[in-house]
Amino acid sequence: MSGTTDGADAVTATPAAGVRMPDEPPLHGLGVSLPPADAPAKTEGTFPYAADLWAEGLLWAAVLRSPHPRARILSIDTRQAAEMPGVRVVLTHEDVPGDAAHGRGTPDRPVFAKDEVRHHGEPIAAVAAEHPDTARLAAAAIAVEYELLDAVTDPQLAFEAEPLHPDGNLIRHIPLRFGDAEAVGEVMVEGLYRIGRQDPAPIGAEAGLAVPRPDGGVEIYTASTDPHADRDLAAASFGLEPDRVKIVVTGVPGATGDREDPGMQLALGLLAMRTGCPVKLAATREESFLAHAHRHPTLLRYRHHADAEGKLVKVEAQILMDAGAYADTSAETLAAAVSFACGPYVVPHAVVEGWAVRTNNPPSGHVRGEGALQVCAAYEGQMDRLAAQLGLEPDEIRLRNVMATGDLLPTGQTVTCPAPVAELLRAVKEAPLPELPKDTPEAEWLLPGGPEGAGEPGAVRRGVGYALGMVHMLGAEGADEVSTATVKVSGSVATVLCAAVETGAGFATLARQIVQETLGIDEVHVAGVDTDQPPAGRACHSRHTWVSGGAVERAAKMVRTQLLQPLAHKFGMSTELLQITDGKITSYDGVLSTTVAEALDGKELWATAQSRPHPTEPLDENGQGDAFVGLAFCAIRCVADVDIELGAVRVVEMAVAQDVGRVLNPRQLRARIEAGVTQGLGAALMENLRTTRGQVRHPDLTGYALPTALDAPDIRIVKLVEERDVVAPFGAKPVSAVPVVTSPAAVAAAVRAATGRPVGRLPIRPQAAVAQVVQR
């Protein structure tokens, strides 16, 4: 099935954006804007965030963190802290009974630093006390003697520097070779690009509660996005079997992937087991900035070759990613960056080198669109350079090179999924441009910098820029993507049990819609998540829409068969001749008509099913292999006003066309796209966790700027291409990551168009947005 949907129509499938009037039937099934079940609790303040949890006999935790980016630990003296009134226990590396190291991708990160600290904010000790202030004072009273070491903070120097970790400084190197490495084009352009350290900046900082169990195990209540992986990490560190550790997922206060700090959970569990009391920790915003992973800062060098008509001949690229002190998910992030280094374009020949290295900078890890965002900013900058060199319009050179279904990635993998890249680009190009602001006092708000800015209206230039982005769906390189779900039906109520965490991406709402669509039951509940349920995997790459949604659909269909088989047998027909609509079961000939409740007749039906997409394979020694399950694409046109004297930038409009496969919840889809564009806007203009020789500067929301409602532009979804991916459940594709990837490149392109400057650094500095020649 192939089709396109105008954005305005796509997000208003029901009246008033999904709001049901009293005399209307209930919202039901796929394709409607079913509101989230947790919306009332969030608006009323009763949503169960971990920071609000309480238990009888509660103790409070605090963590001592390193003030240095690199130092040798000569001694740790906990006596003064342990003797303070109200302090129950102080733990260091000596008190970790199991594996001393943990990590999401590579287990190379210590629970508590032992011989050396490798980044600013690394945990050294933890305290449990009867009052939070006592815990913090006790942590501050721990005396640590350091020998300061020279921090390696430039990833380019990591290759020759002494080893910063027993595993060495190089985490992964991927040399990609595709086609003829000696090929050259008639035209060649070069560029150097730098991408900053974006923080996930969750709405709520990390928090958790650990409760000891009578069997010597522990239960940890926290906003985990991958509870089974966290359980296994914790059990290994605690020296316990996994079934003696339970992770209970609380409300997640915003997540853009694996946002939580596993080390916090490990410290909590150890404190609870040691004291025999419940222990709670609520991180400060500073601790949150220091502890969790950030987007990889990246240095990219590019050389594009093209013929005289603008057709790409070869892409050469060098990609250097700063992983910080530990590996985390850097290996898979690098794989995405190298694989997508040429973008959604047909490139006959490619030579790409990618490295991820350890430094003494803050840790890097999974942040939405990892790897793909960094290279998108670079290859789109190169396409603008080529357009200028050849005298072509930026959109025209892109149209001459866009990929389509059947083309090859530089990894040698064939693009088998729908790839309507040209259609997306044409949609944003043909969308009407926003009007210029009128010369009125009110229009001062529309100037870059606002009415208090020092700029002059005559110095404002408007630029229009284009960008095309792509992301992969699910895990890659042989990752076993599997999820399990159970659907139960009793009376007129259905319940879904699946360990897929609702992070704000809308899985809980989707699960309800799937069951409604399949079983015709309006009242569907999604149970809370804990590790007593079978695993569903991590909540990233929109994988729960595909894998967990597929498991829910299979389980619901199995229940549907159980429900319909007795009726089909009674009337001498197959179940395929029966349909369920709005709670009623009818046959094709109208002979049978009954309600679902009547057919159940008091019975409880249930089924459990798994979903596992087709396998992938690791990239080989030449960067070749079928590493990805599927791809999603986006085109964005950015219109920006730039004060070419001061360098102030105001993004006026972002026009978005996206390849979505199928719209499952129109209102939810719009929200995900708008959120993704806004997050990308932050990466383009303001978000950068700054460091000085490895020391984080201003780790708070005063020093780290985020886009607000005043910064958000008009986001117009001009087209949604609904060309279903036949291998995906429901044919749907992920929608939130690809606009994050594409929007920073589009903003940079618009600033280039307005100023004539190359703009090779994100976030864009004011001096980079000042025109080279200003004529007044």
UniProtKB/TrEMBL annotation:
It comes from the Bacteria. SUPFAM superfamilies: CO dehydrogenase molybdoprotein N-domain-like, Molybdenum cofactor-binding domain. InterPro entries: Ald_Oxase/Xan_DH_a/b, Ald_Oxase/Xan_DH_a/b_sf, Ald_Oxase/xanthine_DH-like, AldOxase/xan_DH_MoCoBD1, AldOxase/xan_DH_MoCoBD2, AldOxase/xan_DH_Mopterin-bd_sf. Coiled coil: none annotated. Residues 1-39 are annotated as: Disordered. Residues 1-19 have a biased composition (Low complexity). Residues 44-150 form the Aldehyde oxidase/xanthine dehydrogenase a/b hammerhead domain. This is Xanthine dehydrogenase family protein molybdopterin-binding subunit. It comes from Streptomyces celluloflavus.
